[in-house]
Design goal:
single chain, eight-stranded antiparallel β-barrel
């Protein structure tokens, strides 16, 4: 169905304070997943990201969820559908058109960086 979601992940406990974003893109059996250190804004340059292990499809429909074992709180920031332009799993290159409220346009992922640009 080509769904995606952007989740804010807050880890707040006595030993650790971390806020990052998990970006998930639906693939047949699970979701390709990246950790964003900041939200990419349209035409604002590249943002550092890190590829993560694939996540389960259930994350596409969760709005807010408290993780077990003090791993934090996850809250949906944006979501929508996408269209593939290009995808090479071996080189971690991905180009998709996002149709969300916050993330809308052409998202290019190349290794450890991504960029959101206006879709012409």
């Amino acid at each position: 169905m080509n769904r995606w979601v952007l989740l804010e992940h807050k880890i707040l406990n006595s030993n650790l304070f971390d806020i990052h974003y998990d970006f998930l893109v639906e693939d047949k059996l699970d979701c390709f997943t990246w950790k964003f250190y900041e939200i990419p804004l349209i035409n604002r340059g590249f943002v550092e990201i890190r590829k993560q292990p694939n996540h389960r499809l259930v994350w596409l429909s969760r709005v807010e969820y408290q993780l077990s074992n003090s791993r934090g709180l996850v809250k949906r920031i944006d979501n929508g559908t996408f269209s593939y332009i290009f995808h090479n799993q071996d080189s971690q290159e991905l180009k998709i058109i996002l149709n969300g409220k916050l993330l809308k346009g052409l998202l290019t992922i190349d290794g450890n960086f991504c960029q959101l640009t206006k879709n012409n």
